[in-house]
């Protein structure tokens, strides 16, 4: 119940754009709409005063943890010491608010900076012509591989920079695009991370695999690490993927990566759920295993084998040529048939061993999802950029939030983090048209607009300025800026919207109607996919 309350407070504070420390207990309430949410089902019968008192207790606990306890604790886990403070904290991490974890994490990241301001940032050169037309001709031409090759000789300490903040943030490396004149470093860096995520989730690179469940419209578009033996070159690329995760955390640039929860579980060291994670990743195999586990007699087994035979997955039984049977083999996620045990191709599935067969298939899939070899390489890369002990207190969902943010744009949050320049005001008619147009956009169009305006598809959903303290620095790319267009030539309705992606600045003509604003915005977000300098 405490964990459910903490998760509910996390969501409430995200919606209100404040930290739990600034939330008054009397602001905690359960809306009637929450009654259908299974995540808070266990709290529905608790008196509201009891909930508020419990929140006050958790609030006090988190304040003590943040200000006194966590900065003094060794968070590295050692399996041999099951009662270490780190091990106990890991068990109790559901009691710690997300903002508390992020605050401590940010302090540690700023305390582990290894490249100071007097050291020049490493620079890599990318050739956009190598990926012209949108389709990567060969994996080695991708931005991901171009960058991995050039950064392989750069010590990882040079990539450990302070958290991005202010209008001119420090990033792990600078990027120069061959043949393109790009002003500033932020826009090109954010475009690079966006392009790399696009490559990772395409057929050009083989590091990630679309999860089998997506074939039947479950978890569509979700990926896992490709479960197959890796070469030395692939291990280096996975190491670089881990580094990019760490670089994105330090840069506070949410990566548009859609990975299954099982990936984040293995990354933070949590065990997989044999039922839930198998169902999420491969529902067809999950249903197949369940059928074998629920058989009550031999006739049902024979009928199931006949059904499988009709799908060309079974062979004839050695006991009866006309009797179909399954063997101790199964297809891996990459489509390769493997034996589930020694000489499995010669062992038929019978009533006596059908449970062993089902357990062996489940075990195969869980090993593929755990993918120890690949996850070890990713964690090694991540650990070269951020201290891995920070993952001790993070849940898989929180690690995903910290790395990838939320896949949707909160217009109210964006509006609250927007500045109007050169005399413009929120009440100006064309500004009202602008926000009115964005309110009609789908989430896909809003992501395209954000990509057009600042060269990243996802933007942070929290900002330090929400604390209301003297430190009102924004996390990049915030704040969004709206300014008049350059020059005064021509009618405003005939002009186009321009942006300066490094500054997240939109140069907005004074369009005369909502219809024209909609037309020009849609033209802008669809016309050019990767603006680098506006």
From TrEMBL:
InterPro entries referenced in this protein's UniProt entry, alphabetically: HECT_dom, Hect_E3_ubiquitin_ligase, HECTD4
Active site: 502
Biological processes per GO annotation: glucose homeostasis
Official protein name in the record: HECT domain-containing protein
GO molecular function terms listed in the Swiss-Prot or TrEMBL record: ubiquitin-protein transferase activity
PANTHER family for the chain: E3 UBIQUITIN-PROTEIN LIGASE HECTD4-RELATED
Alphabetical UniProt keywords: Transferase, Ubl conjugation pathway
Entries under Pfam families matching the protein: HECT (PF00632)
Source organism per UniProt: Spermophilus dauricus (Daurian ground squirrel)
Domain HECT: 175-534
């Amino acid at each position: 119940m405490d964990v459910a309350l903490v998760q509910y407070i996390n969501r409430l504070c995200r919606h209100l754009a404040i930290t739990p420390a600034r939330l008054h207990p009397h602001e905690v309430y359960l809306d009637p709409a929450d009654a259908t949410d299974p995540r808070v089902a266990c709290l529905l019968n608790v008196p509201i005063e009891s909930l508020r008192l419990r929140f006050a207790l958790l609030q006090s606990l988190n304040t003590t943890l943040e200000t006194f306890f966590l900065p003094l604790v060794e968070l590295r886990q050692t399996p041999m010491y099951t009662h270490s403070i780190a091990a106990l904290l890991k068990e109790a991490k559901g009691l710690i608010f997300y903002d508390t974890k992020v605050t401590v994490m940010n302090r540690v990241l700023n305390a582990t900076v290894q490249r100071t301001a007097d050291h020049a940032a490493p620079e890599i050169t990318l050739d956009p012509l190598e990926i012209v037309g949108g389709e990567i001709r060969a994996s080695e031409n991708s931005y991901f591989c171009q960058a991995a090759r050039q950064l392989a000789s750069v010590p990882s300490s040079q990539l450990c920079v302070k958290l991005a903040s202010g209008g001119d943030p420090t990033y792990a490396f600078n990027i120069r695009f061959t043949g393109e004149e790009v002003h500033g470093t932020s826009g090109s860096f954010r475009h690079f991370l966006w392009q790399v995520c696009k490559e990772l989730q395409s057929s050009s690179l083989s590091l990630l695999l679309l999860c089998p469940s997506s074939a039947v419209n479950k978890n569509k578009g979700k990926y896992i690490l490709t479960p197959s033996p890796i070469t030395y070159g692939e291990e280096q690329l996975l190491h670089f993927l881990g580094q990019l995760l760490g670089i994105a955390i330090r840069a506070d640039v949410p990566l548009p990566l859609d990975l299954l929860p099982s990936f984040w579980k293995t990354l933070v060291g949590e065990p997989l759920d044999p039922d839930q994670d198998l169902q999420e990743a491969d529902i067809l195999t999950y249903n197949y295993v369940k059928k074998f586990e629920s058989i009550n007699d031999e006739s049902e087994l024979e009928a199931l084998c006949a059904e499988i035979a009709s799908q060309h997955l079974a062979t004839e039984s050695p006991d009866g040529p006309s009797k179909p049977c399954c063997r101790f083999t199964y297809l891996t996620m990459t489509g390769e048939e493997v034996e589930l045990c020694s000489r499995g191709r010669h062992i038929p599935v019978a009533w006596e061993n059908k449970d062993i067969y089902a357990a062996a298939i489940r075990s195969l899939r869980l090993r593929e999802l755990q993918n120890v070899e690949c996850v070890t390489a990713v964690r090694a890369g991540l650990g070269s950029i951020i201290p891995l002990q920070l993952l001790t207190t993070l849940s898989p969902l929180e690690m995903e939030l910290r790395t990838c943010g939320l896949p949707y744009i909160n217009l109210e949050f964006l509006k609250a983090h927007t500045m109007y320049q050169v005399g413009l005001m929120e009440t100006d008619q064309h500004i009202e048209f602008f926000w009115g147009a964005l309110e009609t956009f789908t989430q896909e169009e809003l992501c395209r607009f954000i990509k057009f305006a600042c060269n990243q598809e996802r933007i942070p959903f929290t900002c330090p300025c929400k604390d209301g303290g003297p430190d009102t620095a924004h996390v990049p790319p915030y704040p969004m800026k709206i300014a008049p267009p350059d020059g005064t030539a021509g009618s405003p309705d005939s002009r186009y919207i321009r942006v300066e992606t490094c500054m997240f600045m939109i140069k907005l003509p004074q369009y005369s109607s909502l219809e024209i604003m909609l037309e020009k915005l849609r033209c802008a977000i669809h016309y050019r996919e990767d603006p680098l300098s506006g």
